[in-house]
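Protocol step 4 of 6: structure prediction from sequence.
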Amino acid sequence: MRPLAIAAALLVVASGADSAATATPAREAVLGGRPATLAEFPWIAALVGRGSSPLNGQFCGGTVVASDAIVTAAHCVLGGTRIDVVVGRDRLRGTGGRRLRVARVTPHPSFSFERGGLDVAVLRVARPLEVPALPVATRAETGLLRAGAPVRVAGWGLVGQNPERRTDTLRQAALRIKDDSLCGSLYEPQFRPPIMVCAGSLRGGPPDSCRGDSGGPLVAGAGAGARLVGIVSFGGDRCAVRGRPSVYARVPAAASFIAAELARPRPPEPPPSATVPRLQVLRVRCAPACTIDGAASGKAGRVTIVAARIRRGRTDCVRPGGCTALDYRLPARRVGAGRYRLTAELPPGLLSIQLEALDSRRRVLARSAAVQVFVEPG
């Protein structure tokens, strides 16, 4: 199973990010499909690691659903609020639109990496986003997700897998909703019809949402009738493969949660973050031992240890009670001014890696964005 937030071996997933691993830009986004414009998706949002450029730091998508709120996938934002949102822009290299700091992150209470659950989160900002909002589909509009219904997906995720390529330009794809029983048979036991829906081709091949599109919108209807009906969540080990249409969080099932979050008062402006160190995973290479290179900057006076936190990737923990726990730290050594390195044998499989700055009492002062890497067996 692939969480769609991962791009290539090192795509940042949300975790209290300061900055992101460098991405390789391409001229395309959404695997297959066609270019999308702001006129078609005026409410599209890019989630960007704090301190990174939109091109290098974008790790997930989102949808503006109110003047100060964005809906995204919960798996994109578990771990912190060091996230910015970029709106009013269809090219990550562009200069239009606005970039605002996320002031509050609220994942759906039923979601966790271990248990799964509704893969939905609401992000709030302290100032108006000044872009149109997309209405959220309610429980009364579940017919928009009937088998065969047309939908659209958009994002800046992978556009090529051999080699893996990211994109600068927003793209979209037209898909069809698949029957729940069929999706259940393809993804048993992970697929849960009350809170999930799948869309795409059973034959394989593009178009399809892919790594980096996580959190982005699945839209039914057009114009004034457009509704947010799904959120990009997960799929097969590869994008656009036979028998693996991508899976989306079913938005009508989360409509009451979203409405309750929008009813809360707007959060205050988040305080400046220059009082903590900033960490970044620069590169991970495994051949066969893994070398993790990282950087630290900012207020580092209280830092005693910089360590790499190794955790099992989400794909091993989709089934409730079916994942093997893996969560430990390994100290990194300083190899230059603000530079750290760790070389170690890591277990095979999909792993999540973060850098953590610890004080003398082993309290965590700051974390980097998480990167995910697949370690080959043997």
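Step 5 (inspection) to follow. The first strand starts at residue 2 and ends at 3.
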